[in-house]
Amino acid sequence: MRGIMFRAGFMLMLILQEAVAYSQLRFEKLLCENKVNPLGVALQDLRFSWELGSIQNNQYQTAWQLVISSSPEKLNTGIFDVYNSEKTRSRQSIFIAYKGKALHPAETYFWRVRVWDKNGRPSAWSEVQQFTTGIFDRKDWTNAEWIGYQEMADSMRVVPGVHAPLVNRLADKCMQRSIVPQFRKEFAVHKKVKRALLFITGLGQYECHLNGQKQGDAFLSPGWTYYDKRVLYNEYDITRQLISGTNAIAVIAGNGFYNINRERYFKFVTAFGFPEIICRVKITYQDDSVENIISDDSWKVTPSPITFSSIYGGEDYDARLEQKGWDLPGLPDSDWEQALHVEAPRGKLMPEQDYPVSFFDSFSAKKITQPAPGKYVYDFGQNISGIVRIKVSGKRGQIIKLIPAELLTGENLPNQGATGEPYYFSYTLKGEGEEVWQPKFTYYGFRYLQVEGAVPDTADNSSGLPVISQAISLHNHNANPSNGTFLCSNDLFNRIYTLINWAIKSNMQSVITDCPHREKLSWLEQDYLMGGSIHYNYDIYGLYRKLVIDLQDAQYAKGFVPDIAPEYVVFADGFLDSPEWGSASVILPWLLYQWYADQNTLQHAYPMMKKYLAYLESKSRDHILSYGLGDWFDYGPKQPGEAQLTPKAVTATSIFYFDATILAKTATLLNLPKDAAAFQKLAAGIKRSFNSQFFNAKTNVYSTGSQTAMSMPLSVGLVDADRQQVVLRNLVDSIYSGNKALTAGDIGFHFLIKALDEGGASQLIYDMNNRDDVPGYGYQLKKGATSLTESWPALENVSNNHLMLGHIMEWFYSGLAGIGQEGNSIAFGHVRIRPQPVGDIHQAKADFHSPYGWISSAWERENNKFSMQVKIPVNAEATIYVPAIVKGNIYINGKKWKDAIRAAGPPVLVRTGSGTYHIVVE
Questions:
Q1: CA-to-CA separations, 635 to 697, 747, 770, 772, in angstroms, rounded
Q2: Sequence-ordered list of residues with C-beta below 8 angstroms from that of 73, at least 6 positions apart, any chain
Q3: DSSP characters for 466-485?
Q4: Is the dihedral of CA 796, 801, 807, 808 positive or negative?
Q5: To 10 degrees, what angle do helices 584-596 and 648-669 make?
Q6: Cα(354)–Cα(39) distance, rounded to whole angstroms?
Q7: pLDDT at 713 over 90
Q8: Contacts of residue 97, Cβ cutoff 8 Å, sequence gap at least 6
Q9: How confident is the model at residue 891 (pLDDT cuts 50, 70, 90)?
Q10: Cα angle vertex 456, ends 453, 461, to 5°?
C-alpha cells in the first residue's frame, strides 16, 4: 500500500511540475471570422482570433502557433495537413490571417492554437475548433436551379422601387398578389452519413424544414440586400437530422423586400420577382462518396396557407388550407404541381456571415380592455419590433383580425397614423381544437393589439366567437451577442438606458432600420452616429461588415452613396443625397477598424471611400457643401424635419472635413503616402474655408451659435487649438443660459455629447438629461414611452420607436463608467478608464466585451473615499484616470501606489497591464 501511495504521490508531483512549466494563459474564446465554429466562411481572407485569460496581472502573449487539419483525428495526432504556422513571435491575437494552401468549398476544417506568455512559457493546446467553408461559384451549386410557383415577366419588374406617392404612374404593375408557395422534396439515405450540409436561400424570405424540424432559429432569412447585386444564402449542418431511409426537405418562401405590392400600407412598391428558392444538400458518406440533392423540377410546389404577405402590410393565414405532414416524408403529394424553373435573381449568391434575425423576448398582455363593441385591446406593456402569437379555439372558417399599434387614439383604439396604415394580420380557423399561429414573413412596431372577431377567454362569449386563450408579442432582432451592461445609482439614467436599448434592439435587424413599422429602411446617418452606442451593447462586427458591403452595392457610378442602403427605392432631393448620410461610406469602414482591428474591410472599402470623397469635393464650392437634410429633427419652433437651427452648410461641410481626415489616416495605414498627402491638403483647405465662412473671431462663436453649430467643429477638429477652450466655454455657457434644454438633432446631438465629454463638461450632460420637464429622455419616459422616440417631445405624429437620438448611451459607457480607448488604440488594445462622477451619482459600473475580452469599470464614492474596481483583459493595457474629487493617497490592490502620474488637470493617471485592480483614494 505504501508503494502505491508513493507512486501516486510521485505522479501527482510530476503532473504539478508539468503544470507549472506551462503558461499562466488560458483560452477564453476561440473565433474564426469573429464567430465560434462558423459555417459559410470565405476561401480567402480567412482570419482567426482568440481571447486569453490569466490569474496573473500584467500578462500578455509573446508568440502563437496555429494548426489546421482536415479531420479532428489528424489534428489530435499532430498531422497538420492543411496548415501549420509554426511558432510565430507576435502579440497579435485578433484577425490573424490564414496563409495556408487553398481551401475547398463546402468542406469542414479543424483547428486549434497555443500561445506563449510573457515569460516564454507555452500554454496547453486549445480545444479543437472547426469551420466550414461556403460555396462561391455557380458551379459549386452542382446544377441546382432556382424554382418557384410562378414566373414574373421582365416587363412587370419594378426595380428600383417606386415611392408610394408616385405609384399611379406604374399602371398595372405591382398590383398582383403573389402566391406564397411551399416546396417539398423527398430523398433516400441508405448509407452511413459522415457529414451533411444544406445550402439554401429563398427570396424575399424563406423557412426550411427537414423531416418536420425547422432549420435554425432565424426569422426573415436571408438578410436583406439589393437583389440585383447580391443574394445571401444560409448554410446548415444537418448531419444528425438525416435518417436512414426516406427524408423530406420542405421550404416556404415569402415576399420580403423582393416583392411589395400595392395592397394595404406600403412605403414603396417593388418587384424583383415572385418568391423562389435554390437549394443544395451535400451528403458525404463514411466511404467518402458524395451525393447532392438539388432544387430542380423534380420538386413539388403548391400554394401555402399564407394567402397574403407583405413586409409593410401584414399577413393573412387560412388554416383550412394546411396539409398535415407537408414537411414530413410520406405525404401523398400527387395534387401538388411540379416546381417551375424560374429566372435566377441577378445578384451574386454569397453566404450570409452576419448573425440571423431571431426572437428573443415575449410579453403577455398586462391589460385587456374593450373600448368599443367587438373590439378588444391588449396592452403588452412594451413597444417592440415583432409579431404576435395566438392560441385560439373556434369554428372552422371563423376569421380573426389583429391590428397592432405602438400608440392608441383618444378612443383607446389603435393609432397607426404615423406608423403605416392599414397594417394587420388575419387568421382563418380550421376548427380543430386549440390552434396556435404566428406570422412568418412580416413584422411591425407595436405595444398594443386590437382583436376583432374573437374574445379573450375572460370575456363573455354569448355570440359564439372564437376564444383566445393566449396572445403574446414576440420581439425580433439581430442575434449578435450582447456586448455590455451598464448600471448606475441614478434611476432615471438607468431607465433612459433601457429606453434607448429597446430602440436599438427594435431597429437592429439585418440592417440598422430607423423604425420597425413605417420605414424599415437603412437610413445611413444613424449607422455611424449611433454606432458607438450600439457597439457598447452588442457585437456588431458581422452586421456592420454587411452594411459596408451594402454601401458598396449602392454607390452610384459618379461616386455618391444614397441616403439608404440597400437602395430599394430612389428618393428625391436631400432624401437621395445628403452628405451627413452618405458619409457612412467613409466612416463605417474606419469604425470597424477602430473597434475590431479589421483592416481587410477598410482596404476593400477604400476605393468606395475615396470615390465618395471625390464626389463631395466636386459638389463643393470653395470647399463648402451647402445641400442635404442638415441637422434632422433638431428641436425648434417648427415641426421637426429638416434643420431649422443650424445652416445645412455647417453640418455638411463639417462631415466633409471629417471624411477627409479619415481618408488621410486610412491612406497612411494602407501605405499610400501620395493619397494621404492629398487628403491632408484637402482637409486643410476645408478647414480654412469653414473657419473663414462660419467662425466669428471676435465672439468665438460658430455660425448661429446653436448646439450643433458649436459642437460639430469642436468634435471633428475644425477649431484651432488656441481657440478650443474658449469655443467650448461659449458652448457650455449658451446651453446653461438656454435652461439646459436639448435642441440639437439627429446629426448634432452625437457631436454635442462628444464635445462635452471630451472637453471635460460631463456635468452639463448630466444637467441636460437628468430632468423630465423639457423635451428629452426623461420627458419621453414621463409621457409613458417604453422605447426611444423619433422626436425629443415624443410627438404622436411621428415614430415612437426610433434609435436616432440615443447618443447618450455611448456616454453612459465612455463617460459615466469611463470605458474608452486611448489615443490611437485599436480594438481596445490600450484601454482608457476615465470615469466621470457628476451630479448626485455615487455609483456606476459597466462591462464591455472588447476583441481582447471583457473590460470592467465600477466606481463608488462615499463620504471622503473614492474606490474603483477595474478589469483589463490579457494582451491589453490601460491608462486609468483617477478623478481627483478627493485629495489623498492612492492604493492599488491594498498597496500604496507610488508610480501615479500627476496630470496637468485634476485626474491622476495610473498605467497598468492586464488584470484586476482595486483602487482606493482616501
A1: 27, 12, 18, 16
A2: none
A3: -EEEEEEEEEEEE-PPB-EE
A4: positive
A5: 50
A6: 11
A7: yes
A8: 45, 46, 47
A9: confident
A10: 70
Q: Tell me the DSSP string of 877-899.
A: EEEEEE--SS-S-EEETTEE---
Q: Provide the pLDDT for residue 890.
A: 84
- Please give the DSSP secondary-structure letter assigned to residue 364: E
Q: Which residues pair with 162 in a beta bridge?
A: 269
Predicted confidence (pLDDT) at residue 885 exceeds the cutoff of 70: no
pLDDT for position 864 = 81
**Could you tell me the domains of the chain?**
2-133 (2.60.40.10), 138-354 (2.60.120.260), 358-478 (2.60.120.260), 484-817 (1.50.10.10), 830-921 (2.60.420.10)
pLDDT tens-digit readout, 330-367: 999 899 999 999 999 999 999 999 999 999 999 999 99
Element (H, E) at 666: helix 648-669
What number is the average pLDDT over the span 13-21? Answer: 41
**Whole-angstrom Cα distance, residue 476 to residue 732?**
40
How many angstroms separate the Cα of 343 from the Cα of each of 153, 261, 574? 10, 20, 36
* Bridge partners of residue 186, in order along the sequence: 248
Residue 406 identity:
E
d(CA 450, CA 374): 10
Task: Compute the distance between CA of residue 536 and CA of residue 850 in angstroms, rounded to an integer.
Answer: 9
| CA gap 504, 474 in Å, rounded | 16
Q: How far apart are CA 879 and CA 376, in angstroms?
A: 58
Q: Say how far apart CA 158 and CA 171 lie, in whole Å.
A: 11
**For residue 692, what are the contacts with CB-CB under 8 A and spacing of at least 6?**
none
| Predicted confidence (pLDDT) per residue in 664-694, tens digit | 999 999 999 999 999 999 999 999 999 999 9
Its pTM stands at: 0.95
CA nearest 696: which of 664, 667, 730?
730
Give the whole-angstrom CA distance, residue 595 versus residue 536.
10
Do 129 and 32 touch, CB atoms closer than 8 A? yes
Amino acid of residue 172? D
Interatomic CA distance for residues 766 and 274, integer angstroms:
53
- Residues 757-814: tens digit of each pLDDT: 999 999 999 999 999 999 999 999 999 999 999 999 999 999 999 999 999 999 999 9
Quick: pLDDT tens for 583-618. Answer: 999 999 999 999 999 999 999 999 999 999 999 999
* 421/440 Cα distance (integer angstroms): 20
